[in-house]
């Protein structure tokens, strides 16, 4: 079986060839894209905003229920 020898050129070109080979054979590929849609730098803030809106809806519903109970108690129902 014949042996294959690889001798890079000497000098600056040799350094470039070796670096190119190391980069081409490296395992560090491009980072994976996020699978979830809507992934962006403001996601934490937008999630907090929507969560606050949900909490506000719940608080409004509780306030309305309390006001209705007070009104019923005032009328004597």
TL;DR of this structure?
This protein is mainly alpha-helical and about 80 residues long. It is built from two helices and no strands. The longest helix is centred in the last third of the chain and has 33 residues, at about 45-75.
Q: Which shape, going by the Cα principal axes?
A: rod-shaped
**What is the number of E strands?**
0
Largest sheet, if any? none
Radius of gyration: 33 Å
Element-level helix/strand string: HH
Mean pLDDT: 77
| Overall helicity | 55-70%
Low-confidence stretches: none
User: From the helix content, strand content and strand pairing, which structural class follows?
Assistant: mainly alpha
Strand content: under 5%
What is the rounded distance between the termini? 101 Å
Q: Helix tally?
A: 2
Task: Describe the protein.
This protein has 77 residues and is mainly α. 61% of the residues lie in helices and 0% in strands. It contains 2 helices and no strands. The longest helix is centred in the last third of the chain and has 33 residues, at 43-75. The radius of gyration is 33 Å and the shape is rod-shaped. The mean pLDDT is 77.
Question: How would the blueprint of this fold be written?
Answer:
Elements lengths: L11 H14 L17 H33 L2
Features:
0% strand; 77 residues; single chain; mainly alpha; 61% helix
